[in-house]
Amino acid sequence: MAKIFVDCTYTLATRGDRGIARVVRNIVRQARGHPNVSPVVFARGAFRVVAEQELSSQCSSDAREHWFAARLVRSCWTLLVMIASVLPPALGRRLLAKTVYNKRLGPQTKFYLRCVGAVGHLDEGERSVASSDTSAAFVPGDVLFLPDASWNVDCDAFLVRLCEKGVRIVLLCHDLLPLTHKHLCSDPEDVFSQWLCRWLPQAHGVICNSRSTRRQLLRFVNIVGIPLRADCWIESCPLGGDLEGPAAGVCSAGPLPVGSLRTAKSDRLPGDGVEIHAAMAMDEPYYLTVGAIEPRKNHALLLQAFELFWRGGGKARTVWVGRWTMDAEPLRRQVMSNGAVGRRLVALQGVSDAALAALYRHARAAIFPSLGEGFGLPLAEALFHGCPVLASDIPAHREVCGDRAIYFDPNDALSLASMLAELERGERVLAPVVAGEVPSWEQSVTRMFELIGQHCDGAAR
Question: Cα 318 to chain center, whole Å?
Answer without folding.
Answer: 20
